[in-house]
From TrEMBL:
<dbReference type="InterPro" id="IPR013525">
    <property type="entry name" value="ABC2_TM"/>
</dbReference>
<keyword id="KW-1133">Transmembrane helix</keyword>
<feature type="domain" description="ABC-2 type transporter transmembrane">
    <location>
        <begin position="25"/>
        <end position="177"/>
    </location>
</feature>
<feature type="transmembrane region" description="Helical">
    <location>
        <begin position="802"/>
        <end position="820"/>
    </location>
</feature>
<dbReference type="InterPro" id="IPR017501">
    <property type="entry name" value="Phage_infect_YhgE_C"/>
</dbReference>
<feature type="transmembrane region" description="Helical">
    <location>
        <begin position="21"/>
        <end position="41"/>
    </location>
</feature>
<dbReference type="InterPro" id="IPR051328">
    <property type="entry name" value="T7SS_ABC-Transporter"/>
</dbReference>
<feature type="transmembrane region" description="Helical">
    <location>
        <begin position="700"/>
        <end position="723"/>
    </location>
</feature>
<dbReference type="InterPro" id="IPR017500">
    <property type="entry name" value="Phage_infect_YhgE_N"/>
</dbReference>
<keyword id="KW-0472">Membrane</keyword>
<dbReference type="Pfam" id="PF12698">
    <property type="entry name" value="ABC2_membrane_3"/>
</dbReference>
<dbReference type="Pfam" id="PF01061">
    <property type="entry name" value="ABC2_membrane"/>
</dbReference>
<keyword id="KW-0175">Coiled coil</keyword>
<feature type="transmembrane region" description="Helical">
    <location>
        <begin position="771"/>
        <end position="795"/>
    </location>
</feature>
<feature type="domain" description="ABC-2 type transporter transmembrane">
    <location>
        <begin position="708"/>
        <end position="845"/>
    </location>
</feature>
<protein>
    <submittedName>
        <fullName>YhgE/Pip domain-containing protein</fullName>
    </submittedName>
</protein>
<feature type="transmembrane region" description="Helical">
    <location>
        <begin position="855"/>
        <end position="877"/>
    </location>
</feature>
Amino acid sequence: MKHIKNTGKLFILDWKRIFKNPIAIFLVLALMFIPSLYAWFNIKALWDPYANTSQLPIAVYSDDRTEKFQDKSINIGDEVLKNLKKNKQLGWKFVDSKQELDKGVKSGKYYAGIYLPEDFSKNLLSFTTGDIHKPKIVYSINEKINAIAPKITSKGATSLQSQISEEFIKTASSTLLKTFNDIGYDIDKNMVSIQKIKSIILSTNDNLGTIDQYTQQVVDLHNKMPDLKAKLDKANDFIDYLPEVDALGQKVVQLDDSMPMIKNQLSIIMTLQEKIPEIQNAGKQIAMIDNDFASVEQTMNEGIQEAKQGLTIIQQVQTALPDIRKLGNQANELASTTLDGATQLQNALPSITNSLDITLKALQNFAHSTSSYVKAIRAALSNNHLSPEEKIAAIQNFQDNIQQQENIIKNLITFLENAQASTGNHNFDSAIQKLNAYSEALIKLDGRLETLKTAIANGEAIDIDQALSEIETLANNLSALIDNIDVNAVSTSLNKILTQLIATIKTAQDLLTKAQAIDFESLLNSTGKTVSNAIALLEKYQKELPAIKQEVHNANLMLNGNMATIINAINKGASLYQNELPLVEQKLDKAADFIKNDYPAIRKELTETLGTINEKMPDLEKALDQANDLIINDWPSIKTGIRKAADAIHKGEKEVNLGEIVKLLKLDAIKESDFLAQPVELQENAIYPIANNGSASTPFYTALCLWVGAVLFSSVAVTEFYLKGRDKKLYSKREQFAARMLTFIVMGIGQALIVTLGNYFGLGVDVHNPVYSVLFALLIALSFMIMVYVLVALFGNIGKGIAIIILVLSISGGGGNYPIQVSGKFFQAINPYLPFTHAVNLLRESAGGIYWPNAWLDIIILVAVGIGFLVAGLVFFPHLEKTSKKISEMAQKSHIFH
């Protein structure tokens, strides 16, 4: 914000200095106004350069001799002179001789000369004799007098040539068309007959392909006559077989009548298809029995052996029964003793579970306190007042506690394993696993503590730190491991196991009591008899097993070996019954219906038709022989003639249309000759019209004026801002640069307003969009002035030289007065990169009518150029100012440049 204020102060200071100095005011106003004069004088001079071409002197002389044509005297040269005397486009001067014409052109009295030679009319009429010679107009021009005059006088000569050609064509065509009128009326009278014959020939030619097909069919039929006669003989022989056909038809009718009974008998196949799953299941069962029969035999043999062994055991038990009774009495006494122990165990159960809880919680407390132990060890190690032996003693104390914990864990694991084994369950597996993991972690911790003692004894500080870090990690893991053990769950499971053990002991006591009440002697006797009967029955079936096994095996091979064939046959039969049989029935119905209803009439027609064909065959054979002879011998020449006639008609229609020719021949000869002489009228459509040449040149000279104004002001004004001693320190170089640039920009704006308003209100230039014309000029002036100012501020006199070079290139390569396409390749290449090109194009948009896509492109480029130079100046000015001053000082030493 400060920089902007300082720049504004310097800008105001600039204009205060100008207004205080009358000479400065005069120079500022003059430099605003003078560039406009450059534009105005040029625009006015080129306002309408083609309006005064009648003042350009052109000499004309004709030596043409009069010629005769159809009893008429013709002198084209005299006619030309008469027409030129009426023509005011150029300053025609009719001289008396060829010598005077040549001398006047050479001396510069006349810009050009036109001479018609003596054989002009003769050569023009030479087309009537067939020996054609084109007439010549001799056109002489003095090109050194002026650059533009030769182009204008050349247009006059070309116009004269066109006028003579037009008159010649009109006269010749008028004579020719009068003769054609008479011919046209004669053709028109016979047009109906001509068109009818033409239509017949063309239609026949168009259908030659179809006719050829017909003729080929006739030839083919003639060639097939022997086969047709042979087939006719076979047809006559067929009549002899009609009685056998009649008998076959009666059998078809009988089969159709029997079809319901046949369908009823075949329906059994559908029942079989429904039973396929049962058939397959039966096959699987037989196969399973067959495959497992060896197992059945083995099972039966083993059963007989086991039954015999059981019988032997029963007999042994009967023998030992007195001793068993004695043992039972002893077991009863033992059960009583065990029951007393179980009762005592039940009374001690709360104490046992309470001890377990205390032990587990003690382990947890030790695990949680390991971190405190480790911190205490670290504190002891950091205490320099303690000796290594005292430090090792503190660690050994911690190791002793770990050893105690390991013993507790081993005893607890042994207790849980014994309790679990006594009841045969695995309720403590998870707790035992976790206690083992905790024990292993304690062993690792003890090993690290041993390593720490070694490191202390050796005085190795690095090893001590590493061992302490590992010990702390292991101590933290101990808490996590022991916390995973659910103490309450372990106590609950132990309580449950001991309760079940007590219940089992009591149950055993009850069972022994009941067993003593059983009559084992009677039970063993009845059991022995039952086993003996079972052995006899099993041995009977064992003898019959080989025969049964063979029958099952044969049945398995027969059924399962052919199962796929059986199933496929059933499915195929069912498919035939469901799908093909209805079709057969339908077709049989149709066949029977045909035999009953249609066959008698067909039989009658066949016998009668064969009789007629046999009667007419000789006449048909004779007619085909005649037609075949015509086609082979005469048709090719007839076809060739038709094609030639049609081709001739088609060719004539392509070249000319007969109806159009007749119509053309009957037209008005005078009007048609006028058309032939001048067949085309030029319709001009002006896009973005501009009233005159001066208005069209205004964009170029306005843009040129603004660049010249910028260069002119930069040559007179200085870019360095003058400040006294202390003020130099108050304002930066960039602030001075920006302030003086604003002064230059104001000058550019003034120049743009003066030239554009002067163009419109002073000269009356035709501008389609005057407001945009002023706005565009202001933008161009702003961009040009920034460019020139930056070049001069950065490079001094060299910058002025660069600005002048850009001016020269812009005049040639900017496409101002002439299209850039007619300039050299160099100027075409630099054209898009010249800001002047886009300035002229932008002003042309406002002059003729704005096409905004083009206008926006030019605006963007000019704004970008202005901003680019502005940024470059602000960035580089402080750095290049000293270099620029040195260059200027070197130039001043020559005492030629300031």
